[in-house]
Design brief:
This protein has 138 residues and is α+β, with helices and mostly antiparallel strands. It has one domain: Roll (Thiol Ester Dehydrase, Chain A), CATH 3.10.129.10. Helices cover 18% and strands 41% of the residues.
Length: 138
């Protein structure tokens, strides 16, 4: 049985990448995970949002979605992340919305759509996670 979103525990440990990137989770449900990230501090040398920053946001949201479905018996680890960058963002925040495409016992695939503050799509990503057992095999 999937974990209740209210019971999702995020480790309160220093030096987490999502914290460094300024990522905030705004909504957690089994159907949708929403988060946002500032452009400031996550730009490449030409002043545009770094594509790698979009990938970090996408993997954070997609992994959270997988965790909601896999925990507590299993935990997700990323197998593949594919990102298509459609347009640049130069200021404000970008918002990502993750929705499950497939949820199985051992794998899940999530689509993540990232938009700028004007609602324009900046990136489309797809993340596939493997669900590993949390208990060692006997």
């Amino acid at each position: 049985m999937p974990i209740d979103p209210a019971d999702l525990i995020t480790p309160d440990t220093p030096e987490q990448l999502a914290d460094r990137m300024g990522i905030e989770l705004l909504k957690l449900s089994h159907d949708e995970v929403v988060g946002r990230m500032p452009v400031a501090g996550n730009r490449q040398p030409f002043g545009l949002l770094h594509g790698g920053a979009s990938a970090v946001l996408a993997e954070t949201l997609g992994s959270t979605m997988s965790a909601l479905h896999a925990l507590p018996e299993r935990f997700p680890v990323g197998l593949e992340l594919a990102c298509t960058h459609h347009r640049s963002a130069t200021e404000g925040f970008v918002t990502g919305v993750a929705r499950p495409l497939h949820v199985g016992r051992t794998t899940s695939t999530t689509e993540i759509v990232i938009t700028d503050e004007q609602g324009r799509r900046t990136c489309t990503a797809k993340l596939t996670c493997l669900h590993r057992d949390t208990k060692p095999e006997v």
